[in-house]
Amino acid sequence: MKQTLFFLFLLLTGCVTTTESNVVLAGMPKNQVIKIEGIPDEQAIQDNYELLLYLNKIHPEFSNGKADYTFIFNKNQLIEYSVENISQKDKIQVTVRLTAKQRLMRWVEQLSLPVNPSATANCMIVDKQVNCSNTK
Fold this sequence. Notes:
This is Lipoprotein. With about 140 residues, the protein is α+β, with helices and mostly antiparallel strands. It has a single domain, classed as 2-Layer Sandwich (Beta-lactamase Inhibitory Protein, Chain:B, domain 1), CATH 3.30.1450.10. It is about 25% helix and about 35% strand. It has 3 helices and 6 strands, in the order H-H-E-E-E-E-H-E-E. Strands 1-2-3-4 form a 4-stranded antiparallel β-sheet, with helices on both faces. A two-stranded antiparallel sheet has the order 5-6. Strand 2 (about 50-60) and strand 3 form a beta hairpin. It is globular and about 70 Å long.
């Protein structure tokens, strides 16, 4: 009986989780994202923005797939991330990719575009301006 209790105790204490997160979340500093994801394949900086690019990284939701990951930071805080070019890891695929610098340049250029009203609830375009209301 004592051996069973001791074994059960060891089993349960071995299952304690740590408080350190392995999930990337908006607002994280760049060094924490690198600690989770590893050293990026490419980096680019423009204005106050920095982009980290990971190419052909194994995608956790697809056991047989790889993808490109893009992380964008403003003043060292993660503000946006995306997954692109999901593909099967055993399949030979020729993909034309933008460099980290090209991706960041296009992303910064898009900041000056008007907000897509379809992406925001209760918005209308009036005189080429997007107007949103808080009606419930």
